Amino acid sequence: MTTSSLPFETHGSERALASGVWFWLYPAPLAIAELLVPSGRPLTGLLLHAALALALIYHSTLGRAAHGRNLALALLLIPLMRIVALALPPSGSLLLSYVLAGGGIIAAAALVLRALRLRPREVGLTLGEWWMQLMVTGCGIALGYAGAVLLRPELPAGMVSWQALAALALALLVFAGFAEELIFRGLLQTVSGPVLGRWGPLYVATVFALVQLGFGSPLYALLAFIVGLVFAGVVRLSGSIIGVALAHGVASIVMLLVMPYVRANPASPVATALPLAMLIGGVCAGVAVLLFVLARRAPAGAMRLPERLASRAPASAPESPAGRALAGPAASAQTSAPLLSVSQLTRLRRAAQLTYMDLAERAGLPARLLAEIELGLVPLDPESALRLADGLGILPQELRAVAG
Question: What residue spans define the domains of the chain?
């Protein structure tokens, strides 16, 4: 397996985008395999997942485009996740099943991150505005309620004590919430960008929804698709998967533990407090998303996400021409500095033979943000333009000439 080419490699990017159409063929066997599970043929579904895994292994090792190989390697985690889940005995401990399956998938995801040389921040493993991430968690209550209405799960057997319920809730938070969001909104959403462009979030949401077909409810899969798109937007705005991972975990807890308890005990305090909790949680999540949008659209020098400011700060005192220009009077003029156009930025980066990772490291920007800028997914603001000029070795006063 070739992993020397990073997910943000410059060479062959056009070929990677052209070959992205092949990735839209993979959801078909994934959907068939998942539909076989509720129809009473889980073994056939497991074998089809194994065949899909073999195809992705072939693609990740012998694919022509480096971007496509990297996406195939990340996508390989999906059939592996389902194979592990389907191979576990249904009569075993539910807690043990979550720990074994979820722990194995997290370990596999860590290996893929290492193979692709992705840093934790690039897949959203950063706190960002932690209080706003906690506010996003509130939407998990309503999502869990909706999922329970569609699936009507029963309270797991053997949950006779609060200790057992707490242990299972923690397992759901870690192995259902964090593990799945790390794979879908973290890893897949990151590596799909260079291959699928602006269609990457749609593709990831589609795959996420198809995995839910194994529950036997098309409406639940549709809900998962919508949630996947919303979560993709939240991650893009915040730069972190922590909020959506917590929301996903809370949704699983509410759906599998809280709602079955409420149906069995409709007069309990939990049942009485649940509607108010959904309302408060939904309002908090909506306010958090609004704050993320405002922070993302704020001009340079106005309100900006602290984590993104930290990621853009140079590691040491700047000695480059652009760095020197940022100190003193020129710093106050950065909001009015002309911007590099996206086409000029791409041309200059390729002329310098720099990958996304190389230029992002020089400029003190997240590589994920740089990829989104070049793909036209986010605008290029003046502050980022100055840092990119610094990374490219261009004087700030040359920006107008370069962009012209």
Answer: 13-297, 306-403
Which two structure tokens, joined as six digits, stand for 141? 């209550």
pTM assigned to the model: 0.72
The dihedral over CA atoms of 25, 29, 30, 35, expressed in degrees to the nearest 10, equals: 140
The CATH number assigned to the domain with range 306-403 reads 1.10.260.40
Short-list 54, 78, 52, 66, CA closest to 14: 66
**Across 20-34, 146-160, 333-347, 368-382, least confident range:** 333-347
327: tokens are 């100190």
Give the end-to-end CA distance of the chain in Å, rounded to a whole number: 43
Integer CA distances (angstroms), 96 to 93, 161, 190, in order: 5, 16, 31
Structure token pair of residue 322 = 């652009």
CB 185 within 8 A of CB 231: yes
Cα–Cα distance list, 174 to 14, 68, 313 (Å): 38, 29, 32
Round to whole Å and give the CA distance between 400 and 379: 17
Coil, helix or strand at residue 2: coil
Render pLDDT for 162-199 as a digit per residue (tens, 0 to 9): 888 899 999 999 998 999 999 999 999 999 988 888 89
How many Å separate Cα 382 from the centre of its chain? 26
- Give the tens place of pLDDT for each residue, 318-371: 444 444 443 443 344 344 444 566 677 777 777 776 777 778 777 777 777 777
Q: Tell me the C-alpha distance between 93 and 171, whole Å.
A: 12
pLDDT for the residue 348: 79
Judge residue 401's burial from the number of C-beta atoms within 10 Å of its C-beta, 0-12 exposed, 13-18 middle, 19 or more buried. exposed
Burial (CB < 10 A; 0-12, 13-18, 19+), residue 363, is buried
